[in-house]
Design goal:
Layout (H helix, E strand, L loop, with lengths): L1 E5 L6 H12 L3 E3 L1 H13 L7 H9 L14 H10 L3 H15 L5 E5 L2 H5 L5 E6 L2 H15 L10 H17 L12 E4 L5 H15 L3
Parallel strand pairs: 1-3, 1-4, 2-3, 4-5
Helix pairs in contact: 1-9, 2-3, 2-4, 3-5, 4-8, 7-8
The structure holds 2'-deoxycytidine-5'-monophosphate (DC).
The site of 2'-deoxycytidine-5'-monophosphate (DC) has 14 residues, from helix 2, helix 4 and helix 8.
Length: 213
Amino acid sequence: MIIAIDGPAASGKGTLAKRIGAHFGFPVLDTGLLYRAVARDVAAAGQPLDDVRAAAEQAKRLDPASFDDPSLRGGEAGDAASIVARIPEVRAALLDYQREFARRAPGAVLDGRDIGTVVCPHANVKIYVTATPEIRAKRRYLELQTRWLEGAPPAPTYEDVLADIVSRDERDAGRTAAPMKMAADADLLDTSDLDIEAAFDAAVGLIKRKIGQ
Ligand code: DC
């Protein structure tokens, strides 16, 4: 059983995917981490992020053991990921790993941008999680504020966070290779007016309806 969760940056899809995985007892793959790790490895090799050959090379030799690297979290790593994610050779190199993960018994949850459209077009359940850019920016901004530490550089302003979200949406939805898009047979979950509990309840309801429970 495959549950595909797609949606834009800061939509809450990662948190939802983890909660859904825990609820149904399925492993969860945050596929954004793959692209974040490729971008990290390209930069570490001293290559520009849009260098097709260098990025494809790093994608082919990606080590899943390095996915829990804390440097992969955060907006900067996400922006860098969004640049390497435009390269079709990078996407192709990451497909097998994602599809193998999806085949795990008794089921798997994958979250990303193209899970329901490209990686797992036959997923049993497809949920497209979204919220307005302003709401996503507000959530991300508040989260950054709570993590701000004494002596650290100033946290970005709300306007900075919103601009980052809008430009990432444009890059992810506007690329030719597997653009961020709601699959025709996906259910839309707009969390603009929902907190995480309500979004989780709505997602579980959708899943149960889909699998006939
Ligand atoms: O979900 P995330 O913010 O960690 O993703 C970081 C970037 O990686 C995202 O802006 C675009 C890319 N990505 C992708 O192209 N396809 C996916 N399935 C997941 C992420």
